Input
Amino acid sequence: MVTGGAGFIGSHLVDALLEKGHLVTVIDNYSTGNLENLAHQKDNVNLTIVKEDISHLDKIKAHFKGIDVVFHIAALADIVPSIVNPSIYYNSNVIGTMCVAEASRLAGVDRLVYAASSSCYGIPDVYPTAETAPIKPQYPYALTKYLGEETILHWGQVYKLPVISLRLFNVYGPRSRTSGTYGAVFGVFLAQKLNNKPFTVVGDGTQTRDFVYVTDAVNAFLMAAESTCDQETMNVGSGNTYSINYLTKLLGGDIVHIPKRPGEPDRTHAHIAKIKRILGWVPKVAFEEGVKTILDKIEYWRSAPVWTPEKIREATKEWFQYLSK
Output
């Protein structure tokens, strides 16, 4: 079972599972996912797609019967809409996660692997940031993803459901989100490049992010599912960190600067010793190689919204309104 299997990471995970010969059920309501991400698998008899909202336990629990492993990827993402409308984020990321955990418990699944978020660390005090770092979410999206993690760990503790939580850093790659909400940097930059618009670089562009390629993230999920460990929380990152200025250099194009945003760290950098030790997982795709692969498939972002400084200013006004000191 892959919740959110029509989304960016979820669809790549579905591909990997099908390639291994597994029977896969996807549950997705397409709020952020896109069925086109699975169009190439439409004739695969090992794939079942269920259109449903994970926050409705009574509607999803029957689909968990006979499932061995649940990968819970489904979530609402993006910062701004979580600030504007936090209730839908609680419903999806907290209540929805509880429903997935409960459906897994009732069905007696062997393992639940949760896609957590490194945003739980907020603005860290130490880099690289280890799993023991203080939890300091800066906005409702980050908080709800962390509450989801706490929920699945609690279900593991109380009901002895084997669970693992993977805190994903900045996952990128083909099929990354192109939704109408201002958010993920790759979706923003690639649409701008296709339309010969300058890259909108926040601040001076020296801030860095731990970009981890999607196939490396997928491998972490697969190895977690195949492991015997339980009640573990592990970072998934590249073990390195790259500036936004370097990203724009690799993508190639002009830039325009927009104001630095409150609540955002100047750096994200995963400490990945734990996942290396427990799972034997290591990232394999170099950042430069990953960016080149994306550029080779840039047409995917042809229909993505094109953001200008003016549109971004309007879209992020609540961000500044609520998070500025």
User: Anything to note?
Assistant: The chain has a mean pLDDT of 95. The radius of gyration is 19 Å. DSSP finds twelve helices and 13 strands in the chain.
